[in-house]
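Thread: quick sanity check before group meeting

JM: Hey all, I'm pulling together slides for Thursday and realized we never actually wrote out the predicted structure for the chain we discussed last week. Dropping the sequence here so it's in one place. If anyone has concerns about the input, flag it before I start.
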Amino acid sequence: MVRNNPYQINLQAKNNNAEDHKEDKTAKQGYGWFMPDGHSATAGRAGAIIEQGDKIGLFIDKKLPSGHRFAVNHDKLVDFLVKEHKIPDIIANIPTMPAAFIYSLFQEDVNTRVQIFNKLFGTNITIPYIHTDPKK
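JM (edit): ok, ran it. Output follows.
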């Protein structure tokens, strides 16, 4: 929960753009700098230095700004590199972290700017980077 939110920007909302996300229109979706309520922790991988659900993984998911989005983006990237291109996990995992984190920060920054624009000008521009819980 963001305590200093002078514009009362909705950091967690319902997604009305179900066609793009192939989700139930009323399903709770997330966007915001921190893990939405009800989403599963995803940071970490079985057999890796950071295991899913350990203290470091939970810190990344819950406390690091854009950490939950980073964990989801990074897992998708590493899975793609390991499964599709047969790159060993250790090579695919660690070196891709900085780029995945920067991309996640970019996504949250864009979402925040759209939210501020909508609030200031009374528009209803769709938030571009809606996040669905990958575990559900």
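AS: nice. Helices lie at 18-21, 55-62, 67-85, 89-93, 97-121. DSSP finds five helices and no strands in the chain.
JM: adding both to the slides.
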